[in-house]
Design a protein that fits this description.
Transcriptional regulator; transcription regulation; HTH_HxlR; transcription
């Protein structure tokens, strides 16, 4: 279990793997789809995944140089795990939205943690 969880070190690693589920991606495509990741961190994550045998890197001698990344055979074995994480995350989002709707439907005075104040004094 510990060895398996090291594969998912940090949020960016999981998101890189998620983006590669759709097939081969160029470095620039990954960078655009992962808004907020620095080029240095993306390169480090891709190198780590390549060293772990999960990602294949293909370099083309073009000007400018082109590099493509794809899941390896071993990386393909992660697909059910990523899909399960996505389903779990979607369920959490739906629960959060449902709870927010319930809170919005309650009158303000009955909401937990809400205290009404008028003229500096607490009122019920």
């Amino acid at each position: 279990m510990q060895r398996a969880t090291r594969v998912f070190d940090g949020k960016w690693t999981t998101l890189v793997l998620r983006d590669l589920l759709g097939g081969t991606r160029r470095y620039s495509e990954l960078q655009r789809s992962l808004a907020g990741i620095s080029p240095r961190l993306l390169s480090a994550r891709l190198k780590l995944l390549e060293q772990q045998g999960l990602v294949l890197r293909t370099e083309y001698a073009t000007v400018p140089p082109t590099t493509e990344y794809a899941l390896s055979e071993q990386g393909m074995r992660i697909i059910p795990v990523i899909q399960a994480l996505a389903a779990y995350g979607q369920g959490l989002l739906e629960e959060d939205a449902s709870a927010a709707q319930r809170r919005a439907a309650q009158p303000a005075a009955t909401q937990t943690g809400v205290t009404r104040v008028r003229n500096g004094k607490r009122v019920s």
